[in-house]
Design the sequence.
């Protein structure tokens, strides 16, 4: 009888090694929580910024374009580490959840409790449904190409419909001082900000407004296209930063 | 049995409060979290108490009393803490790194992870809460000084403080872990130096705001220097991979215990 060597798969740790491994996981979880709240929130605050801060900035032209485009970045980079190396299919959801935690803490304590902006004026948008779909597509397809194209598009296209239940009521038209405004606009005029004059120059400028109801889907599809490109860019950026190199000089 | 294997039970280094040996520094870690929380929440409460009454006009004598003094106190604190902590880490470095046992090395990897965790906690307050609060404050006040009631805390305490913690994590790794002593970890260096550049970007930011007096278009290109700095925090992914690879090697060198 000829012997045949068996290639046994790696066995999971047991006993103290398993407990040690689990303790390390918890430490990493705490680390990741604060890392992504801190870093991803700063990235979003300084790129999406005003579109996410203020109700009257949530327009049809830039908001559906900028928000997914800037928020697909860290999720792609984190997926590039967690999925290929650890088969953890929640990189995007982790990033977006951390972002939401940080954003809500700030909106409540910094805007509402300190400077008395109504919380309804500073509600953050959510990308959580988009992130769940992005993670699911990566997990099911195990393909960077498929996730870039279909995940990136879904991430952007889901943004407006999933946020509409939160923000639709603020886009109801009202007549005020003989002019037609939205409730969101009214917030802006009632709670004057130091940036208000500049804001009036920036918010919803351009001829796209004449497109009426088509402006939003146009912005969303433009964002979908750009997200399919942004996703692989940040995937590789995430891989580059996650180098395991040691060098002799810096 | 591997003859180089080390039995865990029996030779376990002592850890306080009956903690497992690899969590030797957990109490210090939790205590640091608690102290930092008190500091940051204290700052926020101070802002709530005095920002509206004394922080709106930098030419008001009360501004000097409540805000510029706070700035000088922060500076004095940092001047003491920076050399003390970094000096301590350097002068107490392990000079026999080639002799440490696998268990000791594992414990130090846990401690390094705690250092990095503390660093990310400082990044949270600097990059998330107080950073966005800057927008909130500057929408109700007119910036007439680079030392506004929020900047004094955000730029001149929070930023140096996370640099302190990041630098400490880097020094801890370099002085107490063999692999980090033999070569300089590129991802750890990126994760510390990149966010350090955010602090340097304050110079560019304030220079730019001498042109744009009005506040505040937060997503303006003048703020993107901060953004590129924070991307380097993604280097933490590389640190994780380095650590996991080494921990697997070390765990293979020791025997399991029930």
Sequence:
């Amino acid at each position: 009888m000829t012997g045949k060597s068996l290639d046994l798969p790696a066995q999971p740790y047991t006993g103290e090694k398993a407990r040690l491994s689990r303790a390390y996981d918890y430490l990493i979880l705490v680390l990741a929580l604060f890392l992504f709240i801190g870093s991803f929130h700063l990235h979003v605050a300084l790129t999406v910024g005003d579109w996410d801060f203020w109700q009257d900035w949530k327009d049809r032209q830039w908001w559906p374009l900028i928000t997914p485009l800037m928020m697909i970045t860290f999720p792609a980079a984190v997926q590039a580490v967690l999925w290929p190396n650890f088969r953890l299919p929640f990189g995007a959801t982790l990033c977006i959840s951390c972002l939401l935690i940080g954003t809500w803490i700030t909106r409540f304590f910094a805007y509402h409790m300190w400077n008395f902006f109504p919380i309804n004026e500073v509600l953050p948008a959510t990308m959580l449904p988009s992130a769940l779909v992005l993670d699911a597509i990566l997990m099911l397809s195990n393909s960077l190409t498929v996730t870039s194209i279909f995940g990136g598009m879904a991430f952007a296209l889901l943004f407006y419909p999933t946020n509409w239940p939160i923000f639709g009521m603020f886009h109801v038209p009202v007549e005020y001082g003989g002019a037609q405004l939205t409730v969101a606009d009214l917030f802006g005029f009632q709670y004057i900000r130091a940036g208000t004059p500049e804001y009036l120059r920036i918010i919803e400028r351009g001829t796209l407004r004449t497109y009426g109801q088509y402006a939003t889907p146009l912005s969303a599809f433009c964002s979908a296209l750009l997200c399919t490109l942004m996703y692989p860019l940040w995937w590789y950026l995430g891989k580059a930063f996650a180098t395991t190199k040691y060098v002799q000089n810096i | 049995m591997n003859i180089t294997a080390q039995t865990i039970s029996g030779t376990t280094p002592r850890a306080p409060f009956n903690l497992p040996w690899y969590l030797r520094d957990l109490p210090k870690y939790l205590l640091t979290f608690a102290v930092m929380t008190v500091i940051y929440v204290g700052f926020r409460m101070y802002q709530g108490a005095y920002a509206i009454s004394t922080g709106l006009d930098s030419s008001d004598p009360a501004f000097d009393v409540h805000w510029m003094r706070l700035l000088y106190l922060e500076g004095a604190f940092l001047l003491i803490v920076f050399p003390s902590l970094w000096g301590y880490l350097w002068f107490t470095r392990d000079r026999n790194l080639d002799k440490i046992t696998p268990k000791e090395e594992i414990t130090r990897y846990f401690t390094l992870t705690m250092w990095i965790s503390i660093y990310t906690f400082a990044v949270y307050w600097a990059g998330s809460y107080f950073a966005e609060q800057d927008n909130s404050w500057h929408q109700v006040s007119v910036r007439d000084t680079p030392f506004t009631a929020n900047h004094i805390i955000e730029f001149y305490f929070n930023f140096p403080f996370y640099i302190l913690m990041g630098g400490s994590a880097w020094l801890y790794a370099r002085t107490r872990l063999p692999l980090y002593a033999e070569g300089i970890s590129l991802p750890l260096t990126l994760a510390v130096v990149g966010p350090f550049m955010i602090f340097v970007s304050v110079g560019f930011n304030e220079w730019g705001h001498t042109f744009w007096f009005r506040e505040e278009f937060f997503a303006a290109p003048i703020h993107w220097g901060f953004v590129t700095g924070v991307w380097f925090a993604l280097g933490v992914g590389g640190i994780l991979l380095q650590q996991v690879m080494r921990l697997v090697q070390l765990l293979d060198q020791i025997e399991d215990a029930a």
